Amino acid sequence: MKKRKIRTIWIVAFLVLLLGTLSVYFVESFRTTEPQNPTPTPTEPTPVEDPRKEYDVSLVMVGDALYHSGVYKDGLQSDGTYNFDSQLADVTPIIKNYDLAYYNQETILGGTELGLSNYPRFNSPQEVGDAFLKTGFNLVSLATNHTMDRGETAILNSVSYWREKENVMTAGSYDSFEDRARSHIGEKNGITYAFLSYTYGTNGIPVPNGKEYLVNLFDKETVQKDIEEVRDKVDIVMVAMHWGVEYTHTPTKEQRDQAQFLADLGVDIIIGSHPHVIEPIEHIGKTVVIYSLGNFISGQDGLMKRIGLLASLDIHKVVENDTTTISIDNVRGDLLYTYHNGGYRKFRVIPFYKLTNDLLPNYKSIQEEYEAILNKNDDTIKVGTRTLEEEASV
To answer: What's the pTM?
Structure first.
């Protein structure tokens, strides 16, 4: 009887425990099926991407590297090598401050192995290129009336020399059709550009048939094809033109016609050389036309041939709502002077702001004369000379 009572108590206790457990389960299940309204966890706001992006590139341009015998002998070292760094030292602080820096390699860099030579058929040491690269130049025009001076071998030497260099783009002279078809497109600071180069001729020296790649002769059909190939792929198209008549400050009708032709094809910047003296800077619509930068360094006599132009501008790109806008601003021209002593030694390219009357008598009045030439037909061009402060802040 007592055992039966104990057993009943255990059964009742078990049933109570079971009912309690089941009730807790059903209550919790009911709670989990009720709608939940938890307090949201604070989150960082999603950043909104700026729909407007801006990019800038600065470009500086100088004229002809025309290495007469006096200029290259000035760089001859005691061990038989050449070094031209000192000739460019006064402009190096300016050039290095620009993103893109252009010059025209007037004389072929065939190298000493061919034998160096003077006018009328030039050949220059390849150390000339070394000095310009150290100075900061990275765009080089190779299509000039002197490209064929020493024949195909000199051109092949030149092309090989430039191909081995880094961070430089050349245009206008090649060693094959495949080389000519290579990309002429570059990019800097988010802005893409194409760089092409042409010459009016080669001083009567024929370009071998089947080897037209050796130098780009100006031909409207070819030029149009080249430009159309790159125009829609880049933000800016630059074309170097070897054109005009020597020793005149006035562009010819042919220059103006060709400039209009290039502008109509969408070229943004036309960079002229060959006259060996400065010609004006103008706009054709939005196209900047520098008709002639003059000599950068040469052994030519005559004051007008020793004054060159350092032209510069800023390229600005705005991308907003899938629309890209390109503008070219701050177009300016500053004067340079090629100094040498009476023995055609100690060549130096000197910005006008560093001149004294001992280096160039009456240089201030000369400056005024050339300022009038530069902006003769376009008063939007900033003309003048830099200051030391500007040189440091470009």
So the answer is: 0.87
